[in-house]
Amino acid sequence: MSEVADEGRTRRYLQVLPPRRPSISVTLCIALLSQTSIHQHTDILVLALSSPSKDSFGSNRKSSGTGGGGDASSTRRGRNNNNNNNNNNNNGNSFGSKNQRWFHQRKAGVTVSKRTKPPQWEREGDDLYASISKSQINSTLSIPNTWDEAMEMLQQTMETHDPSTLPPTKTSSSLDTLQEDPSDEKPFLWGGLSVGPIWKSRLQTAGFQHPTPVQVKAFDAILQQTKKNSQRRRQNVVIASPTGSGKTLAYLLPFLTTLTMPSQKKTALASTASSGGTVWIVTPTVELAFQIQNVVQSLLPVDNTKGGSNTPCNLVHVLQSSQSRDDDSGTTTPFPLLCQIRDNHEPPPAIIAGTPKLLLQLRKEIKNAIPSTRRNQNPFTSADGGGGGGVDPSIPKLAKTLHTNLEAVILDEADRLLQTKPINKNESPIPMGRTVPTISSAHDLLQKLVLDSSYRSSYGGTSLQVVCASATVGRSLRRQLMDILGEPSMDKAAILVTADLRTKKHVSDRKASLLPDNLQHAYYVVREDSTGSCDSPQVSPLLHGLEKATDLLDPLPSIVFPGPVGVEKAKDFLEQHGFQNVRGLADVGSSTVDHNHPTTDWKLTTPIYVIKERLGRGLDLCHVKYVFLLGVPSNAASYAHLAGRTARQHDQVGTCITILDPSEAPQLVTVAQKLGFTAKSLQHS
Ligand SMILES: Nc1ncnc2c1ncn2[C@@H]1O[C@H](COP(=O)(O)OP(=O)(O)OP(=O)(O)O)[C@@H](O)[C@H]1O
After folding, report:
1. What distance in angstroms lies between residue 408's CA and the mean position of ligand 1's atoms?
2. What is the rounded distance in angstroms from the CA atom of residue 376 to the CA atom of residue 437?
3. Which residues form the Helicase C-terminal domain (predicted)?
4. Ligand 1, atom 16, residue with closest C-alpha
């Protein structure tokens, strides 16, 4: 409740409706209105039933003439105070009222601060998700009927040096690490970042001599605090940077260094019980979660007392699916994930990583495990069982720790997790007043965690920090966050962090920042007669194209994304054609794989990973030099992520080779134009 001096008398305003909780807010509102003692002395300001944008302005315009309400007084304040300092009688609980005031002031001709325009690159980012259907293809590109026509089209459009589409000479690369920083001499600065001497030494021992530009930018942005509802909290951040530019460390490092700050009296190595479950990392695949765990593990000193480098990482727990399993007592547990964490970590891990579905399950287990006395006081209260009776007391204790400690959620590959789609300019992403037909699990998870955090906080707003990272970021991502977090604008939902050329004015600069500059592109067009005589006609010509393409290249570790062919068929084909080192996703994290094995022959030794496109996001196999795409990906964003599985070390070149049917030539040209790259042919026409 806030008190506002207004025209000589004190009015009390009840601000009861954080925008993200309409249903609960309505209940609360009705309860309050029914208490006449409050009603008589208080003007009830009902704010922001839905996301406050266009609609909330509209509804308040209607009510502005009724007097008494907050809207009318805010309009008065706007007129009386002919400057921008007129927000001080708002306690900040309502984003809606600020928006309304801004709108009315602007309408009344008062000079108000301009809304920041979203950057051009963020708006262009949406276009990368647009499906490359026939309607998207430039009308000058007709579908070729023959191999010769396709080759002619590709050579004319992809190999000629059109200065308007070619990237200019780069002044700096997003992949280059910052070097020769004089501040490096200071023992607590790692390339200018104040990580402290312990972390500086750990980073350098792990081979990270200097931070990459995006790591520098993200560090300060993630740690920076903003004031909201008179509470200080860390701001939400969206990191946009090309594949292989070091986003993983960019979002991890701020948390790692603060989790272990000596000033916070937390131990340097293991998380203390009080920091258990502070950060949740959401990844599209379990493999990616393990990869993140490995990055953290590589930064921690080897504990020789516990079996050397094989010691499990106590800072990060990766959730793995497990059925309700028998615990030590032989009974089935309804808390398999909590048991998994308890059994592997003491104290609880500060970071929990997993897929959205597993994290949703963990949240549910936490909810059910918190003892009923506590649950009676919190929103998790439900009629179903769980908690209390017959459960090992360590489980409710762990659940409570994880429930109260959660401070930040990181979404790696956020656009994929939230299933970002291009914005339809004619309608808002989630139409007002309508329920959303389907949302992704990550969207559901984030919504629920934001809601939980609102209930935990004393002032009703969420204190949860959200960090998103991806190589392809469009405006629709921040609009989704705006909706989930119930913020009134994209800038308030999250700030953008990028360290590359995408902020530049020239379109070719912006395009050049979408892919690493050490990534090369090539194509191989399959001939109509490319099916081998001994193969059955069901074998895709793309597979024959793949085999022929390897004949033209040095044998080097590769990833094949089989597209329409499918993983099993592609693997079978390669194995039947003598390739002896064909691997799958399960081999990615395998310690038995020798990454430095000499590759002298495609068929005998060269490792070839065949991986489904959906699972390829974020994979970091540094030794991979070729990416083979069977068929043209459905949109430019997919191409960028798949091609980006190579060229992940800034000093080493990688090549993405698209094997395509002649009829797909216009699609490849369209992708290349959107991403601003040129490609060369592996064949001679
Ligand atoms: N400061 C650094 N110095 C040297 N190498 C680094 C540094 N930071 C990250 N790397 C290395 O760069 C590679 C790519 O890093 P990372 O996987 O974080 O990229 P990414 O930006 O997340 O890529 P993607 O978008 O494909 O997920 C990794 O092998 C990592 O070890």
Report:
1. 22
2. 32
3. 548-685
4. 246
Nearest C-alpha to atom 12 of ligand 1 is from which residue?
A: 246
Q: What crossing angle do the helices spanning 147-158 and 665-675 adopt, rounded to 10°?
A: 10
CB 614 within 8 A of CB 562: no
Q: What is the pLDDT of residue 642?
A: 97
State in Å: Cα 370 to ligand 1 middle. Answer: 39
Looking at ligand 1, which residue's alpha carbon is closest to its atom 25? 243
Asked if residue 310 has pLDDT above 90, the reply is no
Dist. CA 668–CA 632, nearest whole Å = 6
User: Which one has a higher pLDDT value, 165 or 523?
Assistant: 523
Question: What is the model's pLDDT at position 376?
Answer: 44
Helix/strand/coil for 168: coil
Q: How far is CA 32 from CA 456, 457, 518, in A?
A: 21, 21, 62
Kindly report the CA angle at 42 between 37 and 48, in degrees rounded to 5? 120
Whole-number Å distance, alpha carbon 249 to ligand 1 midpoint, is: 7
- Ligand 1, atom 4, lies closest to the CA of 208
Q: Which residues pair with 233 in a beta bridge?
A: 226
The model's pLDDT over 485-508, given as tens digits with 9 standing for 90+, comes to 988 888 889 999 988 777 777 787
Residue 614's Cβ-side half-sphere holds a number of Cα atoms within 13 Å equal to: 7
Cβ atoms < 10 Å from Cβ of 234: 21
Residues 38-79 have pLDDT tens digits of 444 433 333 333 333 333 333 333 333 333 333 333 333 333
Q: What is the atom index within ligand 1 of the atom nearest the CA of 249?
A: 18
Closest residue to atom 8 of ligand 1, CA basis: 246
Question: Is residue 191 a contact partner of residue 203, using CB atoms and an 8 Å limit?
Answer: no
| Distance separating alpha carbons of residues 175 and 517, to the nearest angstrom | 8
Q: Would you say 659 and 679 are in contact if contact means Cβ atoms under 8 Å apart?
A: no
Most informative mutation of 468, 641, 648, 656 for ligand 1 (most atoms within 8 A of CB): 648
Whether the pLDDT of residue 238 is over 90: the answer is yes
Q: Which of 44-58, 186-200, 362-376, 631-645 ranks highest by mean pLDDT? A: 631-645
Ligand 1 binding pocket (C-beta < 6 A) is 177, 208, 211-212, 215, 241, 243-249, 471, 618, 620, 622, 644, 648
Q: Are 170 and 516 in contact (CB under 8 A)?
A: no
Nearest to 52, CA basis, from 18, 86, 27? 18
pLDDT band at 595 (very low <50, low <70, confident <90, very high): low
Q: Among 174, 210, 245, 639, which residue has the most ligand 1 atoms within 8 Å of its CB, making it the best to mutate?
A: 245
Please give the full DSSP string across 407-433, using - where no structure is assigned: -EEEEETHHHHTT-----TTS-SS-TT
Token pair belonging to 34 = 């029914």
Task: List CB contacts of 598: < 8 A, sequence separation 6 or more.
Answer: 605
Residue 549 in this model has a pLDDT that exceeds 70: yes
| pTM beyond 0.90, yes or no | no
Residues 387 and 369 sit within 8 Å (Cβ to Cβ): yes
pLDDT, mean of residues 228-251? 89
Peptide bond just before 393 cis, omega within 30 deg: no
Work out which ligand 1 atom sits closest to the CA atom of 212: 1
Give me the pLDDT at residue 233, please. Answer: 83
